[in-house]
Design goal:
Blueprint: H1 3-26, E1 79-83, E2 87-92, E3 97-109, E4 112-121, E5 129-136, E6 155-157, E7 164-173, E8 176-185, E9 190-199, E10 205-216, E11 234-238, E12 243-246, H2 248-253, E13 257-260, E14 264-269, E15 272-277, E16 284-289, E17 295-301, E18 305-307, E19 312-323, H3 326-332, H4 346-363, H5 366-380, H6 382-397, H7 399-408, H8 413-427, H9 435-454, H10 478-493, H11 500-517, H12 522-546
Parallel strand pairs: 1-6
Antiparallel strand pairs: 1-2, 2-3, 3-4, 5-10, 7-8, 8-9, 9-19, 10-17, 10-18, 11-12, 11-14, 13-16, 14-15, 15-19, 16-17
């Protein structure tokens, strides 16, 4: 391939990465699609999440508005501590909510392994708050997220031989009794929440369950060395078909007001999320509001259910609070894995992650998985690369003749071009054939970039020696230096540009590219190093077969 084409393709690739990052952070997002109005509970936009109406002929009066997210510090004397193999968390008996969730397997920084990611905390400014409850028809008692619960003990821990842990909270008022039951599972981040309602009041009781999430979605300070700062942070609504992201500006201009089945709501950040997943068959009403320029509140409320006197009813929903582990999210709810945001290259990135994950299941090391993936991609494109390599070798072989033509017709560009094309035709050379492999591989390269950036499975994943985190830059810039050396050898194996100025530019291009790659994830640089080394070996072999003097 013409080295000038290589240079411009490299520049285009870098600018495309910058453009994608800009699009993810600053480009306007479309307003949510209109939803056909159906007879279902509504949520007015007030200072609170849900208010219920029931459109049946015998419906009770509407329920009162419920207070918004409680920002006050929990009463630590009424906190239950719960520990599983993946969580260290607290439940506040004032509301029965998860108020402090620490992820035991995920340090904030690899250098400080004892300081873990805290995903839920009602007191912290930059974390998510999750509150849940039941809303009853007006005048009837209901355990909202401010209700007072009791429990039989203060500490719960998953036993060594147990696969799940249940925490039961009790609420009662009059002759209405409710057990709020959390179920935690070994090795998993989906949490089941059930409300077991027993009605002994002598009359029917009607109510619905709801969940609300408060999160932060304001501007993030960008940093060249902090990949977290370039990931979206804000609210997500999935309506069973489409996935929409919202920051505070989006919600201020276009508040969420929709109804859907098979959907869910979430607050997401880089690598982690807190999602509320109602039963897939229920029609849920979703609303949002923005108390200030940084804070967003999204809520979802289900349909009313009537519980006859002397009867029981169980409300159920799930939460996913933890890392964006794609297999677990897919098992929890359809579309939940979309929170791993690969952007416009999702159609390539998701299969690539699946292949990378499959290879990792055999190697046990993400670095070796990337190397083997690179080899597989190289084999896939081998026929194209072979054809391009032979064309490049022939171009190098006829380089002296091309230079002679340029000197002979230096004052007649038209004649020069005609003579060069005749030479290409005679020698069966296609000067543009070398561009095709790089053009095809560029989407693969960009997709791998987002896989390494967004997949929590590779977060802080070690390779060997000095590379202890493939998702962040090489701390000593060894891989970029190796890459520069391999690219330099590659330029020497390809035909040199006839223009002396361009030849000098191409000599410095490996250095320029290595400087850019210094800030890329080490796993991506590893891919490019392996790919370049394989390309060098392939081109050297082709040049030898074709008979090109090195």
């Amino acid at each position: 391939m013409d080295n000038r084409v290589l240079m411009w393709l490299a520049v285009a690739m870098i600018w495309l990465l910058v453009y994608q990052a800009w699009q993810r952070d600053y480009a306007p997002r479309p307003a949510p699609a209109a939803v056909e109005t159906v007879e279902t509970p509504q949520i007015p936009v007030t200072d609170a999440p849900p208010q219920l109406t029931d459109n049946r002929a015998d419906a009770p009066p509407p329920a009162p508005t419920v207070a918004g997210i409680t920002d006050t510090a929990p009463d630590h004397s009424r906190l239950l501590t719960v520990k599983t193999d993946v969580y260290d968390l607290a439940i506040d008996l004032n509301g029965g909510n998860l108020v402090d969730v620490v992820l035991l397997d995920y340090p904030i920084a690899k250098e400080v392994p004892d300081v873990k990611v805290e995903l839920l905390n009602v007191e912290a400014q930059n974390t998510t708050a999750l509150q849940t409850g039941l809303l009853a028809a007006q005048g009837l008692p209901s355990p909202t997220h401010d209700a007072q619960y009791s429990a039989t003990r203060n500490e719960y821990e998953l036993g060594a031989g147990d696969d799940q842990l249940q925490v039961t909270l009790r609420w009662s008022q009059g002759d209405i009794e409710v057990d709020k039951i959390y179920t935690f599972y070994r090795g998993r981040y989906n949490i089941l929440l059930e409300y077991n309602v027993r009605n002994l009041s002598g009359a029917a009781w009607s109510g619905a369950q709801y969940a609300q999430l408060k999160g932060v979605g304001g501007p993030v300070k960008r940093s060249m060395t902090d990949v977290d700062s370039y990931s979206f942070r804000g609210a997500v609504v999935y309506d069973g078909e489409s996935y929409e992201k919202y920051d505070t500006k989006d919600l201020t201009k276009n508040p969420i007001d929709t109804q859907a089945t098979g959907g869910w709501i979430a607050n997401i950040q880089h690598h982690f999320l807190a999602a509320a997943v109602p039963p897939a068959e229920e029609l849920i009403s979703y609303k949002s509001r923005t108390p200030d320029e940084r804070t967003m509140l999204i809520s979802g409320v289900g349909p009313l259910y009537s519980v006859a006197n002397g009867a029981e009813h169980v409300f159920a929903q799930q939460f996913f609070v933890g890392p964006k582990l794609q297999n677990q999210m897919e098992e929890t709810a359809p579309g939940l894995r979309l929170s791993v945001d690969y952007g416009m290259l999702t159609i390539i990135a998701q299969p690539m992650f699946w292949l990378l994950d499959t290879i990792h299941s055999y190697t046990g090391n993400w670095g070796w998985a990337i190397i083997l993936l690179t080899i597989l991609i190289k084999l896939l494109f081998y026929p194209l690369a072979q054809k391009a390599g032979r064309s490049s070798a022939k171009m190098r072989a006829v380089a002296p003749r091309l230079k002679s033509i340029q000197e002979r017709y230096k004052d007649d560009k038209q004649a020069q071009s005609k003579a060069m094309m005749e030479l290409y035709k005679k020698e069966k050379i296609n000067p543009a054939s070398g561009c095709l492999p790089l053009l095809i591989q560029m989407p693969v390269f960009l997709a791998l970039y987002w896989v390494l950036i967004e997949s929590v499975e590779l977060r802080q994943a070690p390779f060997m020696w000095w590379i202890q985190d493939l998702s962040s830059r090489d701390p000593y810039f060894v891989l970029p230096v190796i890459m520069a050396g391999a690219m330099y050898v590659q330029t020497k194996l390809n035909p040199a540009p006839p223009d002396p100025t361009m030849a000098k530019v191409m000599t410095f291009m490996p250095i320029v590219m290595s400087i850019f790659f210094m800030f890329f994830p080490a796993g991506l640089v590893l891919y490019w190093v392996v790919n370049t080394v394989l390309s060098v070996a392939q081109q050297w072999r082709i040049n030898k077969v074709v008979g090109v003097t090195q």
